[in-house]
Protein 1
Amino acid sequence: LSKSSTFFQTYQFLTSNNENKFPIFIYVLDDNEKIKAQLGISITQNHRGLSGTIFKKLTEIASKLGNRGSWVSGPIIHSNDSHERIEILQTLFSAIEEITKDYHLILIDGYTPPQDQMIDENYKKIFQKNNYTLENFLTFSSTLDLSIEELWKKIKKNAKNDVNKAKRENISVKEIKTLDEIKEYKLLTQIWAKTKGISINNPLENLEKELFFVNSGIQKFFVAYEQDEIVAGLRIGCFNGIAYTHQVLNSYSKTGNAAGPLLTWHAIEWAKNNNLRIYDFSGGKAEVSANKSIKEYSKQWDSLFAYKKKWGGEQYPYFHFIRVTNNQKYRLFRLLS
């Protein structure tokens, strides 16, 4: 198993209860039938638009234009030989091209594994030769071979103050394990979304699948309570010794509480005590897009990066590769979906 494999490329994560979304798995084998690389791509056939009869019609039109294929934290290449990795990548592209044609993909995009630090210029050039554009991202992660005391020392003073403040305020942390508890967490997701101006139509979708993730060990939910009220939540993916911050929530109902930092530190301790290798705090886009101003970029990312940097993790690059197969259809697709 490659050290860069994460839960985003597991069968469990990619398998959806949504009839309009399904995974395709690509494997590259050597002469001895040994897996040298793998990639799970999620195909989305019917794109959700806004509610209402007119918007549903527009969504149906968008779906007829073509589909989207996407992946996260892939491909996983089981080789440390640079030359062999390039050969494997070229083989993967042959399979991706077939999938693109067979499923009428007008957009295919994917994020590389942040833990794969062998992605060099030659690797990126293979994507670019296959008509992919590149966006630079970065993440922050800590190796967990240090003691709890050493991990605490690496954390910035303001994060330590927040954790201690939350403890003084008797904010408690609980790990979610039951369906009813997952339901509470999902309702918190809806509350959080409203504070961001986002609408979630069905927050209780896929409850059984979330419980399956918990029971299989590839996902953990933690929630923080203040005076018996859920005020914050944290979801992490767990696979191959890597804990990955998948979602951070806050109800913002209690002004100035430090429940979020307490959850983060609790999750770090949990990961260390359960013998995981890496805690990935996640990250975001590393540079300003051509169509955005520095002000817009700062508004979107500055506060997030400031929080991620508090926890003493090292900074690692990863990449978002994007290919549009038909620009005219894609523009219409974006307009309608």
Note: Residues 49-58 have pLDDT under 50 and may be disordered.
Protein 2
Amino acid sequence: PDFPARKAQTALLISYSHWRRSQANEDFHRPESGVCLSFHNFGNSNDLGYGVGLQYQITFHQKLSERLSLTECFRPGLIYNTKPYHYLSNTKNIVSGAPFSALIGASMGLNYKMTSSLSLNLEATLWHASNGHTGLPNVGMNSPMGMLSVQYRFDKSKIDTLKFTRGSFDKKMGIVVMGSIGVNQAGGTTRPTNGQEYVKGLVSIGGSWRTRTTQRWTLTLDACYDQTYRLWNETQEWTSKNAFTESSAIILMLGHEWIYQHWSLISNGGLNLYNPTLGKIVGRVEEPNIANVIKRYVPGRFAVRYYFTHPWKSSRSGFVQLGIKSNFGQADFVE
């Protein structure tokens, strides 16, 4: 289906952020963190509806002069769409096939301090929304935007005059063991719709290296069994020997982790060592373009992780994680 006609997207944001002295804030050069509430007009309320987003927000400052600072802001969270796709009442919204989607915003800009409490911000930002293939269609939203905002600071103390202190960390190699469950709907980006959800089971094992208090690298071997691949093999009559192994995948994943207090942001990229069903989908069903060929071999993962034990205080900790597994940037399933 064609993308629905639309005008320019507009948004209104209200955020509240704070700073307090901690080792995590010291190691990240004292960022401001808090929450952001946003209201979105996608340019076509009849077909695309409106959006309401709620995100965590963290902003980093680099002082250029007494009044001017360079800023980078990251906002992970969720967005609610008032008019998602429906196979009877709204077939034109191919952007969002579910009421709730992940919403990520990344910005870079300038902060100009007009007074001790009032600042002006000018930002260039990119917003991305996706339901992780849990509800089709899922073309998703990619919106570059310009933002102008006014910031009022309740606390007028100068935190940049304090002396920085660096934390210590365990430099020994660690072991990573993880089991996870994934879910998605079978099909392409826009069809079939109104289908059922299928489950995947994953096991990962590998090593980790802490390079700084704020960063960790991992290398893992992931094994995955996918019910969606099983469906493809059975409906297309691709299975020749063992349905379980031909519906499975083995992946080598290189990962990076930003660690902030109990939380961390995970980004992975890797290589499909064994994934016969994806190879058949790309080779026999989809268009033979460069992006599809690459996605056959290059998986990815973007996730948020929470450690039960503070990573600064212990190198051993259990965790829970929520993320989106992808194939060369195309959402595959929520994990």
Note: Residues 227-235 form the longest helix (9 residues).
